[in-house]
Structures are given as structure tokens and as C-alpha cells.
Specification:
Number of helices: 4
Radius of gyration: 22 Å
Low-confidence stretches: 6-14
Structural class: alpha+beta
Number of strands: 9
Oligomer: single chain
Shape: elongated
């Protein structure tokens, strides 16, 4: 076969990736963005998403280096691979942004979320709520004669499952922090 008759697609032996990079499949990605901790930076990052019609599923932000005055914004968003690449590129062009990491593609990551759930009920429903909380390792952080406030940490799926089980038992309110995530392993792991 001559060098000009390259078959479509690629293999681990090919020097060229000829597979299409476009896809219509919507994926969820967790992005970690390191920014200067100064007024207006979060508004600029959020403005990028709202101005282009991108959705944010989860958002957490906190200062991570007091001496360097940098903050970490963790964003969970959904989109096609092309949209995710466009988001990362546009985030990287914002002046106070130092780093943009896509934790979904850079390797395994640990993701956790905190939630508070208020459950009202008496009798058997109250006992069942306590039993389920024990199974999910949720803590009762407040209790009255007709309600509990449970604190639970874990993956978003775990919190969703716990909330789904609490709904028929009297779930009246829920507050969630959003996802906090870190890449697993050492800095040099690839």
C-alpha cells in the first residue's frame, strides 16, 4: 500500500488519528479552574457560560492558596466533546485564569458532595428514615419531635439515591454544596 492510500480510522500503529473528533453524544465533565482570588473573576467565568448558552450543573469555589491569592473553581457541565473543548479553550483565554483541568479526561478523580436533607415524619416513617440514614452513613445533625436534618457526603449519585428514598418518608427540603473534585494519584501519574 502506498503512503497516500491510508485507510480511514486509526490504530495504535498509525501516526495519524483519522477518526472524526466530532460527536453528538452529550457528556458530563468536571473542570477544575485555578484563578486569581480577586473581585469579578467568578462573574467573568460564569459570564462565559451564560453568554454562550452553556449550562452549569454544579459549581463550587474557594480560596486554595492564601499567600498566592488563588482560588479553585470546580465546574460540572455537560456538552458534546466539541463544546467541552471550546469551553476549556475559552476559559484558558480569560486573563485571571492560571490553569484549566478536565478531570474527566485526565484520569480518575475523587468527587464528593455534601448535602443537608430535612425529613418530617412520625411513627414508622421516622424509624425508617433513621434506618436508611444509617445504611447511607448519613448523620442526624438536628432533631425535633417531628423532623430530622440529615448530613450526607458522597458522590452525587449516592446523594440522589438517598434523596429518592427519603421523598416518600417526608423529605421537605434539601441543600447541596456542589461537587468538589481532585485527581487521584500523584502529580506525575499519567
Amino acid at each position: 500500500m502506498s503512503p497516500l492510500q491510508i485507510k480511514k480510522g486509526s490504530s495504535k500503529h498509525s501516526a495519524y488519528n483519522l477518526r472524526p473528533t466530532f460527536s453528538d453524544e452529550v457528556e458530563s465533565h468536571t473542570l477544575a479552574v485555578i484563578v486569581d482570588n480577586e473581585p469579578g473573576v467568578l462573574a467573568r467565568v460564569i459570564g462565559l457560560f451564560s453568554g454562550r448558552g452553556y449550562n452549569i450543573d454544579s459549581l463550587t469555589v474557594a480560596e486554595v492558596d492564601h499567600t498566592g491569592h488563588t482560588s479553585r473553581i470546580t465546574i460540572v457541565t455537560t456538552g458534546t466533546p466539541q463544546v467541552i473543548e471550546q469551553i476549556k479553550a475559552q476559559l484558558g483565554r480569560i486573563v485571571p485564569v492560571h490553569e484549566v483541568h478536565d478531570l474527566t479526561v485526565e484520569g480518575q478523580a475523587v468527587e464528593r458532595e455534601l448535602a443537608l436533607l430535612k425529613v418530617q415524619g412520625t411513627g414508622d416513617k421516622r424509624v425508617e428514615a433513621l434506618r436508611l440514614a444509617d445504611i447511607f452513613r448519613a448523620n442526624a445533625v438536628d432533631s425535633t419531635l417531628n423532623s430530622f436534618v440529615f448530613e450526607i457526603t458522597g458522590t452525587p449519585d449516592k446523594i440522589d439515591a438517598f434523596a429518592d428514598l427519603m421523598r416518600p418518608l417526608g423529605l421537605v427540603e434539601i441543600a447541596r454544596t456542589g461537587v468538589a473534585a481532585l485527581r487521584r494519584g500523584s502529580v506525575n501519574d499519567v
